[in-house]
């Protein structure tokens, strides 16, 4: 709720704070139990920062985070430890997030041993079972990360995230570093594990076609702001925000008869250190009006469960 995460910008001889990068600038949304919520936007829009702030890997600058009704914004100690069990992350680069010196079995056992008193045999059985569930051979237990392909390493990362039977998984671009040919296998795996483990999934991606495949609802981010939130089908059939329209128009269409023109946005994403005043999208917006450079739009409901932040709908 009204979550902000700013990074200080230091400058000058004394490395004094000279400004802020407003990575996440006041976003509010909710995850419903059991759903997949896709958080999408270009790189640098703040979606990873949002994911890491929600999981309390980063400290929020302001705003609140609630999990199952409990305010977790500033818990610490044993309460934070308990919460970590319920909320796990899967990272973009599986190789960088796996310790190369540890056997896969130890990597996946580690969270279990950190949280529960269990016999060696019980842990091993549990981990073998997890490895099978993510589609790895049982002897993966005794191998090292470098012995696996990118897709298999991401399966190891997923097994580790599942080890504590979390309720929520935040997956930050889990397939962006993988070959296209294995992306859909890993996505399908995530989908079936979600059912089996009753997971809620916050799925972060820059690629709208990947998000569509995965999500029940979608939030579109631009320069630290949520500009549109809707059911996935509704968002694709009926995008409201000019930025969402442009993103959707850029998805390659399998049907060549579909002639809807691609909307090309002018310019680059401005710096989040000096975001444009008014609507942050106005310098690039094909539908911008004079008031767009003066007033900042708020996220408002335009239809049932469909919210958009744009003065066209004010
Ligand atoms: Fe475009 Fe104005 Fe809407 Fe911003 S508020 S998206 S500039 S029309
Ligand atoms: Mg990122």
TrEMBL record:
Give the UniProt keywords, A-Z: ATP-binding, Nucleotide-binding, Transport
Q: Name one GO biological process term.
A: transmembrane transport
The Swiss-Prot or TrEMBL record annotates one GO molecular function as: ATP binding
Chain ranges of the ABC transporter domain: 1-248
- Which superkingdom heads the taxonomic lineage of this protein's source? Bacteria
Family as reported in the entry's similarity comment:
Belongs to the ABC transporter superfamily.
Q: What PANTHER family does the database record attribute to this sequence?
A: ABC TRANSPORTER, ATP-BINDING PROTEIN (PTHR43776:SF8), TRANSPORT ATP-BINDING PROTEIN (PTHR43776)
Name of the protein in its database record: Dipeptide ABC transporter ATP-binding protein
Q: Which organism is it from?
A: Alteribacter keqinensis
């Amino acid at each position: 709720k009204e979550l902000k995460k700013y990074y200080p910008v230091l400058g000058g001889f004394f490395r004094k704070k000279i400004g802020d990068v407003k990575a996440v600038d006041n976003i509010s949304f909710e995850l419903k139990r059991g759903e997949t919520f896709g958080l999408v936007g270009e790189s640098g829009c703040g979606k990873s920062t949002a994911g890491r702030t929600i999981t309390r890997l980063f400290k929020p600058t302001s705003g609140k985070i609630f999990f199952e009704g409990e305010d977790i914004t500033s818990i610490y100690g044993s309460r934070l430890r308990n919460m970590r069990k319920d909320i796990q992350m899967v990272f973009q680069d599986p190789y960088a997030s796996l310790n190369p010196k540890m056997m896969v079995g130890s990597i996946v056992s580690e969270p279990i041993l950190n949280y529960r008193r269990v016999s060696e045999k019980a842990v091993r059985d549990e981990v073998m079972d997890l490895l099978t569930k993510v589609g790895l051979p049982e002897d993966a237990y005794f191998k090292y990360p470098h012995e696996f392909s990118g897709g298999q390493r991401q399966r190891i990362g997923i097994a580790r995230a599942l080890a504590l039977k979390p309720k929520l998984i935040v997956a930050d671009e889990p397939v962006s570093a993988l070959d296209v040919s294995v992306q859909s296998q890993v996505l399908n795996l995530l989908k079936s594990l979600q059912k089996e483990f009753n997971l809620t999934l916050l799925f972060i991606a820059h690629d709208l076609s990947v998000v569509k495949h995965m999500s029940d609802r979608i939030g579109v981010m631009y320069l630290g702001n949520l500009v549109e939130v809707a059911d996935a089908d509704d968002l694709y059939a009926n995008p409201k925000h000019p930025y969402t329209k442009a993103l959707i128009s850029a998805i390659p269409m399998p049907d060549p008869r579909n002639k809807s023109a691609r909307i090309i946005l002018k310019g680059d994403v401005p710096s989040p250190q000096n975001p444009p005043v008014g609507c942050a999208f106005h310098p690039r917006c094909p539908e911008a009006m004079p008031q767009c450079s003066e007033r900042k739009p708020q996220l408002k409901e335009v239809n049932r469960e469909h919210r958009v932040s744009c003065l066209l709908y004010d």
